[in-house]
Each structure stands twice: as C-alpha cells, then as structure tokens.
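INSTRUCTION: Work out how this chain folds

Token vocabulary: learned, describes local backbone geometry

RECORD BEGINS BELOW THIS LINE
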Amino acid sequence: MFEKLGIVTNIWAEEIDTGARFDDLMVAFGANGFKAMEVREGDYLRNSEFGALIQQIESAMPAYTDTEFKTICDAVWTEKPFQTAHRTLFEAFAAFARKAEGLTLSYAMAHPWLSSPIDRETDTQQIVKAKKLAYLLCPESPRLRLVDLDTEGDIDESAAIANLKRYDALLPDSPMVFAVENARQPATLTLTLAVAGGVKLTYDETNTYRADGTTLNDPAEFWAAVTMADLTSVHFKQKTEDGVLSAVGDGYVNFGAIAEHLRTRGYTGDLLLENTPTQHALQDAVRSREYLCSRV
C-alpha cells in the first residue's frame, strides 16, 4: 500500500526558503518513487521560481475566457500547438510540464469555506482562480483541496454546505475532484459537511489529535461513518507531545489501523506524506515510507 506513497509539497518549505528549486525537488522526489504530489499554496511556494511562474499565469488569466484557458492547459500537457498572447509564459510552463511527466499533481490552499464570505464575488473569484490552477497542474485528473485554518467556534453548517455546493458548480466545463480537509474541526463534522455539499474529503487523522494526545473526535467514530467513496486522499504525518514530526515514526497515530481500514474497504485514492519541513525532506520521506511499509 505505501509503496505508492506521495507527498504534499509544503514539506519542501525549508529547502525552498534556502534556495532550492521547486522543479528540482519535484524531479528528485519523482525519481525516488513519490509520484503523487499535492502542490500546497503558501509563502514557500510563492517565493520559489515555480511560484513566480504561477503568479504570472494568474495575472494573465483575465485575458482568456474559461474555455480558452482550458484549451491552453490541455495543449500544454499534450504538446499540441496553441494560440496565446503570452507565449513565453506558457512555454515556460510547458517546460515545467515536461519535467513533471509521469507525476500526478494537484493543488491545495487554505480558504475559510466553513464561514459565510464577507465579499461573495471576491470569494467566488478566489475559487475560480484556484480551480484554474488545479486544472493547469493536471488536466487529465485535476483536483483542488481546501483546508479551513481560520474558522473556529460554532459552525453555520448551512452556510458551509452552501459554499461547497457553489464552489463545486464553478467552471463546469473544467470538471475536477473538489475536496475539503479536516483541520481545526472534528473529522466527523467535516465529513458530514463534505457529503452534504457533494464534495470529497481529504482525511488527516493527525489533525484529530491535540498536543496532549486527546482527540477532537474518536477516530473509530470517523471510520464508522465514512465510506471509501467519500475519500479522495489520506494524509500521513505523526504527532507526539513535541508536535508534528519531520519523519513518520511512533506517536499518537495508529498507521496500521488506518491502513487496515483502507485496504479492507478497497480504498483507491492517494496517500500523501505531510511531514514537518527540514533541510533533508527527501531522506525524511524515504524513512517515513520505510517505516510505514514495515508496519502494515
């Protein structure tokens, strides 16, 4: 099961902040068997050479209709001719796409989907832009994940569900997997809202554990409620009283139990490492994979 483990790219944050190139890290991880990569939005990404390219593409998006942008994305990855007013820009992305051959890229960002937006139009345009980036990264199987790191306290469930339904309906001609992740809220609540909103769930059991090892909800409660059709991705990292570890090892999370749930129920989504960043993220990821493979 864990032989096909992938990664979330924020594990590269320290290396990128000290000068490593995003595309070089991508190629190195791919060569070491990490084929699924979720490009996680953040300062580390925006400060990278690839992040600069993404920002230029975002600035160019208004020059194209939704259909035109989709056509360019498709052409870039299939190496077909395309018409654009920003040829140098999209040729630069095409060069990146050649390096990503054989990899499955998706996109994730923080967004307060659990709350009613202050400005609905701005909120809508943020999701449209994110969906276009998700499609650009992988037209063959695009996926966008949202994680809400801001909303706390009582949740207006009807508002959250309405947000998800609205987001999912945007860009209907560029269909993709749309998902949310459990973060500060119990996984059982996030699951309920995702299902009601008609979107998928990315599950991270580590987020269920507080610093002292107590849980927001009993993992058994979540596994009793979820079906594999609800899930698109499962994240793996480990937490102890010292926080989230830089490589998976012993701690609060029972990885063997998670793997058993997934295996016996026929899970077909991806498995992604999201360790705490270090200056040697590849070695940490390889050690994490070895640990997981030796215990399931």
Notes: The two ends are 8 Å apart (CA to CA). The first strand starts at residue 6 and ends at 8. The mean pLDDT is 97.
